[in-house]
């Protein structure tokens, strides 16, 4: 039963700042989307939305933290496709992606690009394929750690090519990208959120996008699918969540705040510049996010289990 004071607390919510948990390091793509939506969400709610980075173990540390947080509306959570893949990547999770959270809505679908260091010999994907087949485990591939979508992309790539490269996990995309730009690692498949300027300035080699259509921001970069990896598609879709039991009235306000943020011209422009699609408003709903999560758990589970997971 709702006591008078909790009912009042819900009516007044929010009376203080709200923490938006991010399961990856600061400076990475998930962090930058979180920070982008936090500002207009805060404006809508009349309180600051403070981003807190809780990186590690493919996002599962943050997911555990959020699942255990007080369901009072002051802790909310943004996660990407990793919410769906964790159950196939980890033997035991201390939360259940389908029952430990409330769903607020989908956010954006982020495409990815397979990149190489600037001085890696191959100049296109066909040449890269030959180079990989000739050099095998001498080729190094960065990822943002186990459970990262960059790991997932690398995993699919290696399974489609039937090779095992030397996979190097980093603590997040920030350090992985730094090493790619510095030439310390050969390959990285990364979300478009922060890499378009590097691609345009040829500070990296671009071997293909993980989308079925070319991206408006970099129309000269072919898709991997059109270069022989037919149907190769990986997108970092995002959702906003809250701990299970967060009051409905609070969830409704959070959903309205998320919609407001995604309709903000600044947010739209920033995402469009990176060829990121804000989802249509009918997807910014709890039901749509839950369906997306269920579909993706079913789609990726067998792929991950079948592929030999690179470390
Ligand atoms: C990050 O923010 O570091 C990324 O989203 C990690 C990834 O999934 O590749």
UniProtKB/TrEMBL annotation:
The keyword Transmembrane helix does not apply. It comes from the Bacteria. The keyword Signal applies. Keywords: Receptor, Signal. InterPro entries: BUG, Bug_dom1. Belongs to the UPF0065 (bug) family. This is Tripartite-type tricarboxylate transporter, receptor component TctC. It comes from Polynucleobacter meluiroseus.
